[in-house]
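Table S5 (text form). Sequence records supplied for joint modeling of the two-component complex.
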Amino acid sequence: MSIDLTRFYESFFAESLESLEASETGLLALEREHATDERLNEIFRGLHSIKGAAGSLGFTGLADFTHHVESALDRLRKREFDTDKPTLDILLSCIDYSRALVLAAKDGRPVDGERGQELVTALDRLHSTLPANGVPEPSSVTAPVVTDAVPGFRIGFQPAPDFFANGNDPLRILKVLSGMGHMRTRCDATALAMGEAFNAERCYLAWDIVLEGDASREDIEEVFSWVREDCALSIEPLAASAVEAPAVQTPIPTSAPAPNAPPSVAVEGAEERRRLDRRSTDRRSQARSAEAEAEEFRQERLHVSRDKVDALINLVGELVITKTMLKEGLTSLPLEVSQRLEAVVQQLERNTRDLQDSVMAIRMLPVSHAFGRFGRLVRDVGQSLGKRVDLVMTGEQSELDKSVIEKLVDPLTHLVRNALDHGIETPEERKSLGKPEVATLRLHAEHKGGNIEIVVSDDGRGVNAQRVAAKARLLGLIGEDVEVSLERACELIFEPGFSTAESVNELSGRGVGLDVVRRNILELSGGIRVETAPGQGTAFVIRLPLTLAIIDGMTVLVGQETYIVPMTFIAECVQPDPAAIKSVAGRGVLVELRGQYLPLLKLGELIGIEACGGIDTGILLVVEADGNHVALLVDSLVGQEQVVIKSLESNFRKVDYIAGATILGQGQVVLILDVAGLVRSAKS
Amino acid sequence: MASIQQSAQRELLTFTIGEEEYCIDILKVQEIRGYDSVTRIANTPEFIKGVLNLRGNIVPIIDLRLKLGLGTPTYNETTVVIILNIGDKVIGAVVDGVSDVITLDAAVIRPAPEFGSALDTKYILGLAPHEDRMLILVDIEKLISGREMLALSDAGVE
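The corresponding structure-token record, covering 842 residues in total, follows.
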């Protein structure tokens, strides 16, 4: 019987791309921090799960290639070579190639096999630059060469077999040591008994530890003071130690002289043989644990198609409406009945709200999904521009609706490239300005009420009002002799076609400007603003609703009709003062509000309702979009509520001034105003 | 022969608008319901009455009397909405009343005569005599898709 594997393809592709991204993030982190076991395992796990799945689904090319990468990563995990830049470059290229393979498999395209072969060769070379090979390449930095300058100790630690029985825990000791400096360890599991001989209460393991740092011999001895009787221990200064990555010596007392000898081919050969032996036993246990880890990783996640989640969200929306109808129906019942039912309805209300929250949470993903790719982008673009940039991400665990995240990637990419291209200066320029040569690019996310704020900031040159003004004059956006304040400049950069880039390059000068960014953000019912200080940097602050499916809305009445205005656009609500209404040239009407003149839009007029109140009885909603404020006249405010957005377009089409529809408690359809559209129309 | 005869038969839903009787392919009909108040949409042509909540779906409602230019409609208890499936859209059409489901032989359907410019007949598939009445067979998709219902079929045209 054959099983149709194709139905697994889609989730395999999605999972693989996710895994690759996780591994890529891990690799990028290695550029900045020391390689912890956890980090290396994370990187390894991504490739390992792809290899396994690709093999079982019949994507042999992908399985083969990822197998090579995986084994390289496995060697990295065992610290057989170091994570220096050339190594990381190769590994990152491998991630790229794996991604290309996944995408090619997805689209059924052929792949560039030569590139794969090159990378495999490069990976194998990583292996062969080991000192064990006998011919270390001078250029390679793969083996950590310990020089006299590095203070520290090499510690051989072999607990006695009854170590645990005496209440000791080697892990705790290792943890204490790791806090004393930069620690690299190698575990020797050769003594490990297999099968029935294995006794869980016996300690079979030994460790070889290189501890770099200022810790003194006394400090280290102190750590071992409790277990001195229960283990074989050797502590030697690093300078006198071997120049190779820690190799396990067993048993420890006899190995003591070996590290002092300069590595000779003969010794290395023997050492290599022993290592190979050891590796074969090691690998069995390590491979098993990796599989278990990968399995655990898979079981924690569930790949569900979006349609199913959307259907669920729809149903919950219906449930919310039904609940409201039930609650309203309650009031028409005789008192004794309604009292009995009230508690039940309240319970229903609570449960519905919890259900709604949980269902919405399914679509929520941490912002790191959008931020993740920028590590690579900043690295590559920074390199090609010759700029040194440190990317700092904060708050990336803040959660956001998946569909919002997807639509956020393009605007964010644009802002990041913009910062790299225009904002950040070259190292020389920064140096001459007395700034640190390495610039900092910050991505920050933070929940604020029902919104999320995402900030892309750099410590570069900031917005230059003069240059913006010059460019704006050139484009005819402003008159020849108009003075441009910094605030005005920050507005101008969002004008269509605006770009101060002196040279058009592939990065920022692609004919699209910040106006596109702003439009994209507006489409998500959000807003964007700029904060800048010349010479100190620029920050783009994006504000977005957490989800596109449910919004907070203000219910307003115009004549007999009800409309909903998304809260995110409302700046304030004011009672109009008839004296504050000014007309311009007999046509345009303005409202004066605290010294500012805002265009006045009468909602009733815009949507063709005659029977609506005038300016003296109505109320003004000051709404903001695109950085423009507009006063919107409505008859009255009804209240604020959460509404489920439904598309008008699914059965009809886009209508001017209308963003969508929702269903209120009594089951009637209420339209949601497209504030951005209204504001645009006021401008033109 | 019998099978050909079979396939040449069409099941149609007949409905009335004023004095006229129309019929449409029954396979386009999802359900029939009474006329309910709808939510008006500003800046749309008059024949688009608004939108309706159909079990959580927002469904646009078109008044066929207005669309066909047959005078001012009055809405009462017998006014019905035919919920239609057109492409992947759900649309409601208001008519005066639904009369019957009939089976017509394709052979009896006569092509609509040319009315010249006086009447646009592109949405009329044909005319059919039925129990001494005349039925107007309508291509409902052609009838209600158009510039005003843009997104329906010719989304690219504006």
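Note: Residues 333 and 339 of chain A are 9 Å apart (CA to CA).
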